[in-house]
Amino acid sequence: AGIALVISTALIYIVATYLLPIHYFAREFLTTVVLGAGVDYSVYLLYRVLEGRNRGLGIKKALEEALNYGSKALISSGLTVMVGFGSMAISDFGVLRSVGLCLALGVFMALLTSITFTPSLIALIGDRILWPRRLKYGVKGSRGVRSRYLREVASIAVRKPKRVLALAVIVTIILTPVLLSMKRCYNAIELLPSTEAKVGYRVLSESFGEYLLSNALIVIKLPRPLVEGSSVDPYVFNELRSVLLALNKSPAVRLTISPLSPEGRLLTLKELSEPRNLNKSLRLLDDKCSTALFIAYLDVPWSGSSSFKVIDELRNTLRLFNAKGLRSYVGGDIALTKDVMELVNKEFLYYMIPLITLGIYLVLLILLKSLIVPLKLLVTIGMSIVWSLGLLVAIVQWSFGIPIYWIVPIVVFNGIIGLGMDYSIFLISRVREEVEKGLRDEEAMMKAVEVTGTIITLCGTVMAASLATLMLSQVIILKETGFAFASAILLDTFVVRLLLLPSIMEVGKEWNWWFPFKRL
User: Fold this and answer.
1) Do 156 and 164 touch, CB atoms closer than 8 A?
2) What share of residues in the chain are helix, strand, coil (percent, to 5)?
């Protein structure tokens, strides 16, 4: 994992230096994800080797068997995570694109080292890599108290699948309204720790009002120059006057600075022609006097749903003047945040979700050779996402009164659908392996849970602990992301894998391994 982190960091440095800029958030996520995934993959492979050694196989034979069966699960697991994070790389939003690219690259390096460096190290060191643990020859898998307990839990889901599944659906129904009540925050300043800049921002807002920070920058392209020499064009003046009056009709517009109102008061044509006023007006015109800048100060918070509505109102108002030869563009921090948010939401709904779902389904289809089981796995991960984000809203928003930063649910969804799928893949690939050996689905599931239960629990705990370190940050955005990731991984490890997955596999089990494409 450490080697993967060093190599991926070096590659990202090269990308940032020569190809495209990388957002600093990518570095924060990279360490936790790569270390968590790298340890998970290496430990899983090492466990498969240990299982073979306990059955009396030689170290090379045990390693060969582990690679033969375990590498398929590892590669599929890594690919699902890469699909989840990599889908963010298609975004036009730089933060998502750089975070997605970095995490996909980091997971690829974690996967690559786990199937190349780790086996080489095992072959070189041999059983000493397990020190101080002693081998238990003749023991098929793990039969400790924990494994027997995990088998008993799974057997409940196998015996009463409909009840377990119904309970999971009820929990999902309860948490769905909680999730939908999420109040997304668009003002990153409010979610920063109490720095001097944040304190200054609050003092400025409380002392002088929101309008000093909350504004819209409006650029208007004119059909001809407003000023030529020292004379003002009456036609252009009247057109801009109509625009200014229309903007000031909005209740949310407190004050508008423009070439016709350089100090806030609308000037007459005669007043504007005076040299003193004309010089002030020229500061809000380009060199050719054919582009005008309007600064509309707003009586709404700097960034939020109310300010976004005002931006829409201003744009709709300005469109009425396009037919008269004026071309207007509304910009500024509020408009930029609004446009980015709408762009990312559109990409998320229409591109990322379909791409992730299809990509992961194809990976699982090739691994498991089943059309139905991948769909069941996607259903379980969907429930897990609803549960974790619902808990995020209930604890962070409802209990502590902290809003959820708008981009957090998108990053969490893309990450959970890949990382959370890891443990389902580890389990179901083992179920498939046991079914191919002749066991019935029920026995295959319980044996898979018993044999892999301890190691998957360990892997899930390691990953959750790694991602939970994000909560140590003073930046609330990272705290929220770390909490959602860690809770989702723990839910997948201790609830989805032990109860939900066995129960959903038991329902309609006769169709589990239906696969008409035998040559694939």
Assistant:
1) yes
2) 70, 5, 20
Cα distance between residue 285 and residue 282, in whole Å: 5
The yes-or-no verdict on residue 291 having pLDDT over 90 is yes
Quick count: other Cβ atoms within 10 Å of Cβ 199?
A: 10
Q: Do both 322 and 380 map to the same domain?
A: no
State residue 239's pLDDT score.
93
Question: Are the beta carbons of 483 and 396 closer than 8 angstroms?
Answer: yes
| Number of domains the chain is built from | 2
Closest CA to 28 of 99, 85, 87: 99
Q: Is the pLDDT of residue 316 over 60?
A: yes
CATH of the domain at 251: 3.30.70.100
- 172 to each of 379, 388, 491, 504, how far by Cα in Å? 11, 10, 13, 15
Specify if 438 maps to a domain: yes
Q: Which domain holds residue 305?
A: 211-336
The pLDDT assigned to 145 comes to: 65
Which candidate, 328, 353, 505, 494, places its Cα nearest to that of 414? 353
Q: Provide the Cα torsion 254, 257, 259, 264; round to 10°.
A: 70
CB 318 within 8 A of CB 330: yes
Residue 346 pLDDT > 60: yes
**Region of 456 on the Ramachandran plot (φ > 0 left; ψ -120 to 50 alpha; else beta):** alpha
pLDDT category of residue 133 using cuts at 50, 70 and 90? low
pLDDT tens digits along 114-124:
999 999 998 88
In terms of domains, do 259 and 370 share one? Answer: no
244 shares a domain with 180: no
The residue whose two tokens read 């959903």 is: 504
Q: Please name the residue that has the structure tokens 């239960």.
A: 453
